Amino acid sequence: MAKDVSGEKFEAEVLMAEKPVLVDFWAEWCGPCKMMIPVIDELTEELSDKVKVVKVNVDEAQDIASQYGIMSIPTMVLFNESKEVARLSGAMPKEPIVHWLESNLK
Question: Is 22 exposed, middle or buried (0-12, 13-18, 19+ CB in 10 A)?
């Protein structure tokens, strides 16, 4: 299961991470976000050797969502060495996300 991070935890868990981090920006009231929960959980388990997966609730961490220009959810942002590498918006199956991740982790 992906770890929820916000506030001070975001810097430690994402920006200072030793490996790439996939951040899932979501909200409790968001239907498509809820559809993505099993997909995010699978990615967390299956890709743990390549990427760390965390979640940011945009209602609880509005400052972080604003800082990274999150306009719609779900949005996944890939960070590497404290910088945004790529982003992907919308609910989708696991396979396209894995392909997107692999192409951006090279």
Answer: buried
- Write out the residue range of the structural domain in which residue 12 sits: 3-104
Share in percent of the chain as helix, strand, coil (round to 5): 40, 25, 35
CATH assignment of the domain containing 67: 3.40.30.10
Q: What is the DSSP string of 57-85?
A: ETTT-HHHHHHTT--SSSEEEEEETTEEE
Predicted model pTM: 0.94
| pLDDT at residue 48 is higher than 80 | yes
Catalytic residues: 30, 33
User: What are the distances in angstroms from CA 5 to CA 14, 82, 94?
Assistant: 9, 15, 22
